[in-house]
Amino acid sequence: MRALLALEDGFVLEGRSFTGPGETGGEVIFNTGMTGYQEVLTDPSYAGQMVCMTYPLIGNYGVTREDVESGKVHVEAFIVKECCKVPSNWRSVASLPDYLKRNGIMGIEGIDTRALTRHLRMHGAMRGIISTAETDPAALVQRAKDLPSMEGQNLVVRVAPESPYRWDGERPQKVTLQDGVYAWPGKGPRVVVYDFGIKWNILRLLAAEGLDLLVVPPSFTAQDVQRCGAEAVFLSNGPGDPATLKAEIAEIAKLTDMMPVAGICLGHQLLGHALGGTTRKLKFGHHGCNSPVKDLTTGRIEVSSQNHGFCVELDAVPDVRVTHVNLNDNTLEGFEHTVKPVISVQHHPEASPGPNDSHYFFGRFRKLLREHLGK
Question: What is the pTM assigned to this prediction?
């Protein structure tokens, strides 16, 4: 089925829908991963975005029950050069087209993904529309222009939970707090995890460090954290513009004065704001699983998984030390506070998809808790 992709600057490509008729829009970005498309599809940080995979053949190992990072698909659309309809994988339970259809997500193939990626690299990520119904390119370009910009969008409200839950090792399980107090089931450090759109592998790796976890929505205040009996806080990844989350930033600022805090991706950006820094929009973002990052504390270079469109700037922020930098563009990839027990990274140490070079961040957080909590 013929489909058009139109960007806000007038760039138009023709392809074919492999999920049937429809129309959708969002910010168009590209991901350089050769594998891991199911983790990409189910990563809540991609809410509001149409993802173009740069690798030419996608879908060849199908879809599995194990390789999900949340309870649903979050991308607005999936753009590939060629979609494999007959996967070969003993774990596969569905083909990529069937999976996207079941989740109501548009997928298009036959697009010149090299031309699209080059255009986005030259001109930046931008708004776009995919349609099988509208055949007038000019009309689609105008619809793309009418979409909201990623800057100024709070997309966390679309993906965050409404109430606290615990992680049972496979899925979230709702919990009830009695008068704000949580009956912590474990013996490890009690950590409140803020879910701004968390990937499940973050919870898997935190649990593997022996931490007792309570996952909470963004509306959970610093007072709520104290009342529930938590001893530390972990801030998750998530979608959208971090500068829009002003109430959350104010609460995080309070938390950094109360207990150890760590953050990943959006959580890193919110910590940057809370400590007095700012964020800015990157031209085309970092999306993939092959970005080199240098850990300045060890001199070690790691290949990292990344998915962000904003970066933190900490100019003139006191008592903050840069710990990680991106070797492609020298943007900030991590920092620590020199007085408060606060650490964070921009990239994704949990991977899923991607290499495990950065898994040590969870061990570093555990060490921080041991030093400050004595357990």
Answer: 0.97
